[in-house]
Recover the amino acids of this structure.
């Protein structure tokens, strides 16, 4: 129970922080200052914005389907919030120790699409419904390469449990299933990456082709979050904010929150699958046991705190990258979007699935 | 596009250009964080156009770009030095200066450059909303009392507040002076008439020329209006008047001229009379 409240608090804190950070990063990239008025360096700007949003009138358009209009934001936020359930925040902190965590995550994220469709449909507005159409087309097609890249991780890890995948990428791994943990899979070198720990034992390093998989994963998750350069569903310049055109006040705040929570969720998922989850980034070098110094034993308070620290800092780096990319690349056209997905990412991810299959078969102990 | 590009080439060049773009934005990000923000420099500064990188924002109300020494911004009239010659009002291309002079029978005083003041300014209003900032009035001003200051941010919610009042006389004082001057002129006229009449009684021409003299100046209709206006506010000002009595004439002027020119009493006028030291302070800050 407490983990739910903890995650909710984290999401709210993160949203307040990251909206400010996004504006600051955008400003710095464009040689501006960004918000400076509220609080030191404008840090409390988001709180001021939220207060403003909450005070606003709750408008439901006359032609809107009132029930669905009210339901849609709740559905979206619930879907994304539920995604955090199977996410391991530390060796012990996990909402649900489901054996099919990855599978659950993918399915619950797909519910997001239903919410977005409802947004557009219930608004009874041409821009909203166009935004929804685009969003659905985009999310459904990008879900394929996304799932395939996740599948390649699952194939090499031989498990669907996110906590198990996390353990495999650190020094606390208890190898009972006979998984090849040698460096680059070459057993004759007698180097066990799980003894070294740190970044060496991360999936993206242990199985180098998974780094390419991560790049595909990152691109597709950008599209899943409807973030630039894949923000055609929201395209301010053509669709007047797309599917949330008609939303204002608190409901808009919820949608906004859900959008940023989604960013954090996919950042977490990417870190868990590819970049060592809650494991430390520093390896043991000879007698200098950096990895053991910077991670507590699982089950202790120390282990939880260190674990959460590593996970959140890695995720924030990814979020920073997401923000930077938003302020670097122009928006893709619809045809370019589909071109990228079906002609580039899908073949590449299929190739990666094959590669990981071959790896698992050949590199078996 | 005569030469077809292979997909692989297209792919690699796309990746390359994306990397270049990301590097560029990251470079800007890092430089913005690392490089200390440059303090605002004047346009006259040789480095003005040569900022290599870093944040360029100017936090305006808190800091501003220094204005050039000869910048043309808000007008200010140092009324103690003004001889009410009306040159500024005459040269003004947009007629934004409104002066109502009252001749004084005696010398009022000297300006700081030694010119003799002989005319009171009953009204010296500059409508900064009309002003086109050409600076002609400051050029013609013989005593250099009308100048352009460095204050450029003086927007108002009410356009009437854009009219700046520089007059040294309060309305009732002006009326008093006017009456005094009229009496004097009438006296003189009588004297002259008395002197002329016995000599040439039949000459209409001479009489006309004499009569035209006073017409030259006093606009007889205006004083009556002024009087009425003044009387409206008279009772409200009585207390103030008795309090300050005639201790320092100038101060009373400043305090009392307020209500007449700006009938809305609710906005009690930080503007109508410009206290000079305050403006000077503003300039130094800018």
């Amino acid at each position: 129970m407490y983990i739910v409240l903890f995650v909710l608090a984290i999401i709210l804190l993160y949203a307040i922080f990251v909206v400010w950070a996004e504006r600051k990063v955008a400003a710095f990239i464009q040689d501006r200052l960004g918000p400076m008025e509220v609080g030191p360096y404008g840090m409390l700007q988001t709180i001021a914005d939220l207060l403003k949003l909450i005070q606003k009138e709750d408008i439901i358009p006359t032609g809107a389907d009132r029930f669905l209009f009210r339901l849609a934001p709740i559905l979206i936020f619930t879907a994304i919030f539920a995604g955090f359930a199977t996410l391991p925040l530390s060796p012990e902190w996990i909402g649900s120790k489901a054996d099919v965590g990855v599978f659950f995550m993918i399915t619950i994220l797909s519910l997001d699409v239903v919410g977005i469709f409802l947004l557009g449909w219930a608004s009874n507005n041409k821009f909203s419904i166009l935004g929804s159409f685009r969003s659905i087309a985009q999310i459904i097609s990008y879900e394929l390469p996304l799932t395939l890249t996740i599948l390649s991780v699952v194939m090499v890890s031989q498990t669907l449990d996110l906590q198990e995948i996390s353990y495999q990428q650190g020094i606390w791994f208890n190898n009972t299933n006979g998984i090849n943990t040698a460096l680059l899979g070459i057993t004759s070198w007698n180097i066990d990456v799980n003894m070294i720990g740190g970044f060496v034992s991360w999936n993206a390093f242990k199985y180098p082709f998974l780094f390419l998989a991560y790049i595909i994963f990152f691109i597709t998750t950008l599209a899943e979050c409807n973030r630039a350069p894949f923000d055609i569903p929201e395209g301010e310049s053509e669709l007047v904010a797309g599917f949330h055109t008609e939303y204002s006040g608190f409901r808009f705040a919820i949608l906004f929150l859900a959008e940023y929570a989604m960013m954090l969720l996919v950042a977490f998922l990417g870190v868990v699958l590819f970049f060592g989850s809650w494991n430390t980034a520093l390896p043991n070098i000879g007698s200098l046991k950096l990895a053991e110094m910077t991670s507590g034993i699982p089950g202790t308070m120390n282990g939880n705190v260190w674990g959460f620290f590593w996970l959140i800092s890695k995720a924030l780096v990814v979020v920073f990258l997401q923000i930077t990319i938003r302020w670097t690349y122009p928006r893709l056209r619809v045809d370019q979007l589909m071109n990228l997905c079906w002609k580039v990412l899908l073949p590449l991810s299929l190739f990666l699935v094959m590669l990981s299959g071959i790896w698992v078969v050949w590199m078996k102990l | 596009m005569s030469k077809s590009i292979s997909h692989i080439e297209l792919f690699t060049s796309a990746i390359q250009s994306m990397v270049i773009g990301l590097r560029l934005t990251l470079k800007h990000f890092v430089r913005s964080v690392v490089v200390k923000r440059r303090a605002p420099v004047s346009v006259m500064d040789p480095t003005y156009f040569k900022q290599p990188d870093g944040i360029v924002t100017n936090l305006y109300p808190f800091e501003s770009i220094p204005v050039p020494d000869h910048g043309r911004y808000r007008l200010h009239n140092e009324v103690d030095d003004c001889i009410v010659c009306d040159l500024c009002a005459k040269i003004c291309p947009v007629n934004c200066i409104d002066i109502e002079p009252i001749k004084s029978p005696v010398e009022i005083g000297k300006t700081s450059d030694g010119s003799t003041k002989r005319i009171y300014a009953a009204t010296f209003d500059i409508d900064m909303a009309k002003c086109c900032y050409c600076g002609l009035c400051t050029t013609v001003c013989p005593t250099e009392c009308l100048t352009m200051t460095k204050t450029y941010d003086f927007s108002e919610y009410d356009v009437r507040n854009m009219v700046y009042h520089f007059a040294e006389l309060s309305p009732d004082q002006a009326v008093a002076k006017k009456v005094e001057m009229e009496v004097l002129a009438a006296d003189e006229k009588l004297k002259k008439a008395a002197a002329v009449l016995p000599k040439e009684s039949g000459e209409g021409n001479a009489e006309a020329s004499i009569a035209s003299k006073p017409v030259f100046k006093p606009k007889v209709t205006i004083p009556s209006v002024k009087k009425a206006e003044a009387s409206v506010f008279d009772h409200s000002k009585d207390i103030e008047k008795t309090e300050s009595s005639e201790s320092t004439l100038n101060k009373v002027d400043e305090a009392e001229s307020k209500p007449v020119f700006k009938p809305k009493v609710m906005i009690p006028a930080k503007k109508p009379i410009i206290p000079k030291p305050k403006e000077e302070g503003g300039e130094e800050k800018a």
In short: Chain B touches chain A at residues 11, 18, 21-22, 24-26, 28-29, 32-33, 37, 53-57, 59 (CB under 8 Å).
